[in-house]
């Protein structure tokens, strides 16, 4: 009898790395348990600035009332009779309408998602972009991750398929590429231009790949960016689309942060769908959205969608076949998507509370982002791009050579050493830049702007930074 060992497992799976839930997150959990068990640590609480999970314990972004009321009535239809005179009438109407379209949420739905909800998604896209959207081009998913995984799975062939990914990137992409044995073709984002996409860098990555016999098949763009918080302007987006035309690249547009804008009047979001239609471009585009981010933050419900633009019917049929294997996305996530694309409108009974709740989330995020970037920028050896969108900041650290030497000695990167000491001394958990990728010799870390009590932990972070630099001999 031979017991299964790691060496018996699929080597592609063993190559998968996922820093957001890696060493730092595990250590943070351990420290939290120690605090709960009464251990004496140099801090009173662990601050999870490592993950964009707004409703997580300790971050505590409240769920939107409208979303949860509709969800509750879908979970337990007899509740309608108990609340119909107490809850807003638009909640009850929405739940009745969805119950009529779906029936019980305990049943499998259509594999691409409930047709009624896909129609709502198409209408949302049309209103956002001013161009038509076909519900048949929309696939509801268990979060954006499931859609990314599906597309990478079908795009990667055994013949050295190159996928252009931004550096820094959200590690879902490198992890999924490792899983399906695709070849990442990394291109660097431009930090001096607010982490914008540099066409020159993408061209260089294509050339590099081609030299090695890797055929570039798709280009991943994350906009607004994770971990950078960047936001692309229209001109850059148009040149990205032209570049995809030139190289016949499928554009994978990860737009899960499209509602997280800190100054939408001066920095608006444009979707790639809008740009592709405006340019009348034939490129194949897959656009992702999710209920995990934005103001909903319903990460645990697992809901999202992708829209395919300019795809051949037979390619869409393959996607349909593949989603059928998984039967259907979770119904609770699909209902979350419906509430996201059809929020209460001005004049409806739920609107005043919805507006109050979402304004509070937007303004807290914008304030924290601004304050944290300002304070980080005033620290010696730290520079931080002020981010116009998403939930993150990605400061750059200038570290003395002695930090690099000390890190080498323990087999870690300098930014990991920094993040580990930060966690040990302040309880603040961030993700080292090496988890997202960065230029050789550079050090960054990502912190989220979701934690309440920003003043307190930014002060702790400042004190730590100064002590850390002094301890290693100064800059
Ligand atoms: C850029 C990006 N894409 C996709 C995801 C995954 O989202 P979901 O929870 O919808 O799978 C995340 C999550 O943090 C993300 O940052």
From TrEMBL:
GO function terms (MF aspect): pyridoxal phosphate binding; transaminase activity
Single Gene Ontology BP annotation: L-alanine catabolic process
Span of the signal peptide: none
Entries under SUPFAM superfamilies matching the protein: PLP-dependent transferases
Name of a matching Pfam family: Aminotran_1_2
Quaternary structure (record): Homodimer.
Family: Belongs to the class-I pyridoxal-phosphate-dependent aminotransferase family. Alanine aminotransferase subfamily.
Name recorded for this polypeptide: Aminotransferase class I/classII large domain-containing protein
UniProt source species: Phanerochaete carnosa (strain HHB-10118-sp) (White-rot fungus)
């Amino acid at each position: 009898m031979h017991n299964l060992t790691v060496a018996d497992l699929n080597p592609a799976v063993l190559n998968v790395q996922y820093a957001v839930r890696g060493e730092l997150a595990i250590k943070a959990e351990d420290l939290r348990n120690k605090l709960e068990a009464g251990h004496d640590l140099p801090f009173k609480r662990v601050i999870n600035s490592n993950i964009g999970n707004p409703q997580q314990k300790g971050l505590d972004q409240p769920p939107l009332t409208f979303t949860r009321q509709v969800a509750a009535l879908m979970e337990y239809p007899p509740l309608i009779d108990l609340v119909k005179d107490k809850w807003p009438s638009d909640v009850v109407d929405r739940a009745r309408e969805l119950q009529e379209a779906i029936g019980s949420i305990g049943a499998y739905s259509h594999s691409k998602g409930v047709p009624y909800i896909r129609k709502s998604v198409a209408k949302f896209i049309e209103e956002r972009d001013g161009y038509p959207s076909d519900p048949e081009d929309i696939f509801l998913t268990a979060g954006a991750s499931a859609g990314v995984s599906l597309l990478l799975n079908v795009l990667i062939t055994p013949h050295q398929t190159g996928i252009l990914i931004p550096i820094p990137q959200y590690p879902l992409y490198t992890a999924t590429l490792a899983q399906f044995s695709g070849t990442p073709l990394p291109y660097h984002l431009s930090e001096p231009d607010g982490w914008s996409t540099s066409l020159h860098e993408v061209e260089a990555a294509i050339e590099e790949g081609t030299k090695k016999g890797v055929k570039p098949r798709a280009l991943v763009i994350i906009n607004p960016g994770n971990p950078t918080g960047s936001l692309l302007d229209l001109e850059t987006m148009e040149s990205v689309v032209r570049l995809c035309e030139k190289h016949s690249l499928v554009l994978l547009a990860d737009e899960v942060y499209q509602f997280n804008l800190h100054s939408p009047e001066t920095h608006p979001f444009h979707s790639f769908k809008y740009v592709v239609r405006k340019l009348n471009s034939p490129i194949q585009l897959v656009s992702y959205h999710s209920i995990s981010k934005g103001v909903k933050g319903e990460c645990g419900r697992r809901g999202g969608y992708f829209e395919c633009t300019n795809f051949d019917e037979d390619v869409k049929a393959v996607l349909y076949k593949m989603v059928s294997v998984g039967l259907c996305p979770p119904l609770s996530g699909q209902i979350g998507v419906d509430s996201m694309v059809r929020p209460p409108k001005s004049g409806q009974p739920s609107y005043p509370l919805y507006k109050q709740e979402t304004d509070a989330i937007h303004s807290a995020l914008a304030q924290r982002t601004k304050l944290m970037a300002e304070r980080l920028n005033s620290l010696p050896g730290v520079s931080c791009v002020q981010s116009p969108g998403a939930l993150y900041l990605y400061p750059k650290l200038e570290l003395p050579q002695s930090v690099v030497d000390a890190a080498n000695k323990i087999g870690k990167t300098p930014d990991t050493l920094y993040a580990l000491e930060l966690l040990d001394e302040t309880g603040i958990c961030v993700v080292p830049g090496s988890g997202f990728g960065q230029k050789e010799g550079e050090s960054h870390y990502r912190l989220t702007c979701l934690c309440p009590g920003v003043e307190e932990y930014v002060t702790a972070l400042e004190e730590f930074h100064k002590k850390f630099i002094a301890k290693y001999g100064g800059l």
